[in-house]
Amino acid sequence: MTSSSTDTRLPGVATEQAIHVVESHSAANYSPLPVVVREGEEAWVWDVEGNRYLDMLAGYGALNFGHRHPALIAAAQEQLERLTLTSRAFHSDQLGVFCTELAELCGMDLVLPMNTGAEAVETALKMARKWGYQVKGIPEGRAKIIVAGGNFHGRTISVISFSDDAVARRGFGPYTPGFVSVSYGDAEQLEAAIDDDTAAVLIEPVQGEGGVVIPPAGYLATVRRLCTRHNILMLADEIQSGLGRTGTTFACDHEGVTPDAYILGKALGGGILPVSAVVSTREALGVFRPGEHGSTFGGNPLASAVGTAVVRLLKEGTYQERSAQLGTHLEALLRALPSEHVSAVRCRGLWAGVDVIGRVGRDVCMGLLRRGVLAKDTHGSTVRLAPPLVVKSAELQWAVEQLAAVLAADDRSDLPPEGISPSAVSPQWRS
Ligand SMILES: *Cc1c(COP(=O)(O)O)cnc(C)c1O
After folding, report:
1. Residue 51 belongs to what domain range?
2. In which pathway does it act (predicted)?
3. What residue's CA is closest to ligand 1, atom 11?
């Protein structure tokens, strides 16, 4: 691998060609920054020109352990040499180990493995409805699930049915009924929405796509109390917030809260392959009988082997500690950014939302790209930072220096990179 000087990146022909090819034959459901990545190691990636970038997005948290963590690659390679898929028609020697160790990490009884995050959310919703009918005694067909405004739980039709993001919803109706939305962080409104047909509350302990929105102190604990009092399942979507991201194994840990189910994904696959799961009690996950739910690839031997290796990394507690300590450092660096450029900083562990003033988040991310930092905007004016937990203190400092430079008024690195044709620049960027 080569590395160049850390200043201005000059996108060249290889970048332009690769972007042209992908834009010719891939659906335009994303608007990527104009960088074509070829290699990665720890917190760094290299593009097809040989330029090096610090990855401050980490695959939206899927790369919590960095690119190609040796223990995870070894687990995958070892399993690749033996067996990759059985389907659930048969047992594999890997699934039991994975479920046992993941359940133990979560302090839960049972695991239902799936692949993507959205599938795990769907699984939790099906579990909650069935539990509502079978265990709680809600009349058939009436189960209600309470969700929070500003949520992001994935892209399936049922999941976007209770999103309030117009772009995610528009044109995809009719929508799945049975969901009630309340303001995120408002426990009183949540309690008012509860009735006899309420089966569950589905909540992100920190809203990631929403811009790293942290609820008011005590909110999660209150939600837990309300769920217990009204016999409702608390479903914590920890797909992005969990597995060390916030400085603890789960974001719920910050308030000493144990939900009735953890919904996990992203980092559970070690940045290697999609692995997701619902981890819950015997009372709740025990409602599923053979044939009622499943997935061809869910819990496959390769996914199980990698998932087990991820759980073992987390069992040591060192990544959570790193995240907490470096998170404090990151927060201090971000809070020192000039207030004329930054209106708010929200930070929990190695996870930050930075609201910029007078700039489009996308343009700031373009500027960061030119300076060798990969980050992604969300909700227009928020820059989200979620580096791999293996990032080093000096690297964080360097990344925030680049952000400061981009935010400085005379910095013009958000201008279109020279040599990039208009077709290589996504429509959203051009507007
Ligand atoms: C990413 C994410 C999902 C969806 O996961 P996919 O693997 O993209 O389907 C669901 N919930 C949260 C909180 C997420 O961050």
Report:
1. 13-62+318-425
2. Amino-acid biosynthesis; L-proline biosynthesis; L-glutamate 5-semialdehyde from L-ornithine: step 1/1
3. 153
